[in-house]
Amino acid sequence: MPTTVKEMLAAANAAVPRISAAEAQALAAQPQTVLLDVRDAAEVQASGKAKGALAVSRGLLEFRADPESPLHDAAFDRAKTIIVYCASGGRSALAGKTLKDMGYGDVRNLGGFKDWVEGGGEVENA
């Protein structure tokens, strides 16, 4: 049965709550939170990333998040809150839904990197 991007985004947005930059900053200050940038490496290199964010491109997310994968990143922990962002919010919504499907219980969508910056979040070079 065919699915459109619009339908996929609607399902992702229904499954993963959208939060404000202020909420993201407050959560990111807690040790049980992972701030996750799913933009491509060139995007991160060009603009930097949220301070302390883990940069994992959307294309590698499943491999980095799965503890059984040889490419697993130990920063991924199902007991932690994961806050995902991309450039505008679409990829982060889909990535958040993927993480939920993989057993991550507390996943939030910040939306776009611009939301972080406009909300006064600190930025660091990649």
TrEMBL record:
Q: Which InterPro entries match?
A: Rhodanese-like_dom
What Pfam families does this protein's entry cite?
Rhodanese
Top-level taxon of origin: Bacteria
Task: Give all residue intervals belonging to the Rhodanese domain.
Answer: 29-125
| Protein name according to UniProt | Rhodanese-like domain-containing protein
Q: Print the organism lineage.
A: Bacteria, Pseudomonadati, Pseudomonadota, Alphaproteobacteria, Acetobacterales
